[in-house]
Write a structure and sequence with these properties.
Length: 280
């Protein structure tokens, strides 16, 4: 049989050696075969890949005397377009940083001359962080080498595989960002939204404003479904204690007694009571 290069590559992909996560999963299956390890297949590999990626990126940035967080701030300002400025709050939201860590980072960049601050005219509490010419020139030197570094890191994937992975990662990231935006949290095999998102969802379908947490989804076969919960239910109270925040719901569920707790909900505008066993 004549083997083409394509056939050889295809065969090699099928017989590729197991990776570190395969070993981790095999060990857990031996120790605790009842565990569902399917999320580890993804999360474990994503974490291990990012460890290699972070190491490679930091090494490249160190060649230019900066760190990755420094590059992230400068690059965020640069891609914002002229006049290459953003408020500190905008930078925090874009980079998922806290106020304290962002202030320290900007202080250091300002001392290096890579950015400067400027007061926002109509808001005394806000300042613009502005990319300087020095910061822009540094980016012009770094970015071509940074992109070449990233290209090398994904070199194990062909163009079709990169496109497929990009779509899957976009889908995953979008779902995570929607969870954060709506405050989605899992309780008793159902996902609930934070109060603002709950109000917005009810208003969108013409229901009156009522304090509570909206059930976004119910897991099939879970405790919430067995108790009768449905998507769109509004949890208003647990054992007659009002629930208007996820913290209040968590406190109510953490109380040891009664183990089987009574929930007062609104299904549309209809009051309904359900009972669910909160024991783990």
């Amino acid at each position: 049989m004549f083997l083409t290069k394509r056939t050889i590559r295809s065969t090699l992909r099928r017989v590729r050696s197991p990776d570190h996560i395969d070993t981790v999963i095999a060990n857990w299956k031996r120790e605790r075969p009842e565990y569902d390890l399917s999320p580890v297949e993804i999360i474990g590999r994503a974490g291990r890949i990012m460890a290699y990626v972070d190491r490679a990126l930091e090494s490249k940035f160190e060649e230019f005397g900066i760190s990755r967080p420094t590059f992230d701030v400068l690059a965020t300002l640069r891609r914002a377009g002229p006049p290459y400025r953003m408020t500190q709050r905008e930078l925090m939201r874009s980079l998922l940083r806290t106020s304290g860590s962002m202030s320290l980072r900007i202080d250091a960049l300002e001392r290096e001359g890579f950015v400067r601050r400027e007061q926002v005219e109509d808001d005394r509490r806000s300042v613009f962080v502005i990319l300087t010419e020095k910061g822009s020139k540094l980016l012009d030197a770094i970015i071509p080498e940074h992109l070449a570094n990233e290209s090398n890191l994904v070199g194990g994937l062909n163009l079709a595989e990169r496109a497929e992975l990009t779509e899957l990662l976009r889908k995953w990231l979008t779902a995570l960002e929607e969870d954060v935006a709506e405050g989605r949290q899992l309780y008793l095999d159902m996902v609930v939204l934070h109060p603002r998102a709950s109000l917005a969802k009810r208003r969108a379908v013409g229901l009156p404003d009522v304090a509570g947490l909206l059930v976004h989804s119910v897991e099939s076969g879970g405790r919430a479904e067995e108790a009768g919960f449905q998507k769109g239910d509004l949890i208003c109270a647990v054992e007659d204690e009002p629930v208007s925040s996820t913290m209040e719901l968590r406190k109510a569920l953490n109380r040891q007694r009664p183990r089987s707790k009574r929930f007062r909900i609104l299904r549309g505008s209809e009051a309904v009571e359900l009972r669910i066993d909160t024991r783990e």
